[in-house]
Amino acid sequence: MSLGRSLELFFIDGRPDGMLTAEVFNWTGHVLRIPRTQIKQGLDRPECKHTGVYVLLGQIDGEATAYIGAAENMRVRLAQHVSGKDWWDEAILVSTSGDMLHKAHVKYLEYRLVEIARSVGKMTLENSSTPPRSSLSEAALANMESFLDTLNMVFPAIRVDMFLEKKRTISNNSKLTQDSSAYLDFELKAPKHGIYASANLFDGEMIVKAGSKARLAWSGTTDAKTHYFKLFDELIQSGILREENEHSVFTSDYAFASPSAAASVINGRSSNGRREWKHQKTGLTFGQWETKQVETEGPQE
After folding, report:
1. Is the overall model pTM greater than 0.70, yes or no?
2. What distance in Å separates the CA atoms of residue 239 and residue 210, rounded to the nearest whole number?
3. Which among 291, 280, 284, 287 has a CA at the least distance from the CA of 186?
4. Distance separating alpha carbons of residues 78 and 76, to the nearest angstrom
5. How many Cβ atoms from other residues are within 10 Å of residue 107's Cβ?
6. What's the Cα-to-Cα distance from 249 to each of 83, 124, 196, 241, 274, rounded to whole Å?
7. Sequence-ordered list of residues with C-beta below 8 angstroms from that of 152, at least 6 positions apart, any chain
8. Which label site among 50, 116, 119, 197 has the fewest CB atoms less than 10 Å from its CB?
9. Strand locations in the chain, DSSP E?
10. Is residue 127 within 8 Å of 114, Cβ to Cβ?
11. Per residue in 189-228, pLDDT tens?
12. 237, 186 Cβ separation under 8 angstroms
């Protein structure tokens, strides 16, 4: 189990969709989110003049798109992007509370964020190519990788998940070898369609194992209320799911946020994962197993 971290979000104007700052205890980083509709107020903030890396988020022709950049003065660069790029709706600025990053630091962060975003493949990048990697000392490189580790925890908390890698490697996870009781095995079968999938519940994620078989194509509704078909398409596009004979096969272990998300992708339609996943040892459905975990022996005083 990972150690907990304390994240402080400050909603500058009291609105959840407005400007916000994000900071983590004992981390020098500072994150500022600016909706484009508040760009003037955002650029007036002192941290915008810091050296840092930034992410622009929006859509081009209906496709989610991002641009990743670095600047010694982010205010100047963002002002240029207001007139030079008309597609973005939100800017995420990353710097440090004491403006301690220098040009080589942020060029390295820019390089790594582009590299990670391309690897995850969740959004289209407007960056024409991966920027060059700056030369850093061994100590500075270690510091930047540690900085990135925390930053990649902050991003999902402010609804930026383009850097969130869902691939997992269960067999090489040192936590599992140290404590085999930390995870549980589940399986999902649909003989009519030749589907068989196995998964581990670990650290709050349903991790479907490589080699598991899913439906070849999405067969359920694509109504706007049903979003799992988008996830199915993303996994096909990224190569996590690969066509093999009459099925789609998981090419790597992949972590889902819930049993239903995993079951829906595997079945190619919206599914109640708490009914369809079964615990391998007991045969209980996920829902039955879950209920047993919270049962008490008697009333609590």
Report:
1. yes
2. 12
3. 280
4. 6
5. 18
6. 45, 24, 10, 5, 22
7. 116, 163, 164
8. 119
9. 7-11, 20-24, 29-35, 52-60, 63-71, 88-96, 124-125, 167-168, 184-190, 195-202, 205-208, 213-215, 241-244, 247-250, 253-256, 278-279
10. yes
11. 999 989 999 999 987 889 999 999 999 999 888 775 567 8
12. no
Measured between alpha carbons, how far is 197 from 191 in angstroms, rounded to an integer?
11
Per DSSP, what are the bridge partners of residue 55? 68, 92
Name the helix (H) or strand (E) containing 174.
helix 174-178
Residues 6+ apart with CB under 8 A from 87: 58, 59, 60, 65, 126
What kind and span of H or E run contains 144? Answer: helix 138-157
How far, in Å, CA of 92 to CA of 152, rounded?
13
pLDDT digits (tens, 9 = 90+) for 26-72: 899 999 999 999 999 999 999 999 999 999 999 998 888 999 999 99
What are the pLDDT digits (tens) for 71-99?
999 999 999 999 999 999 999 999 999 89
Kind and range of the H or E element at 104?
helix 103-120
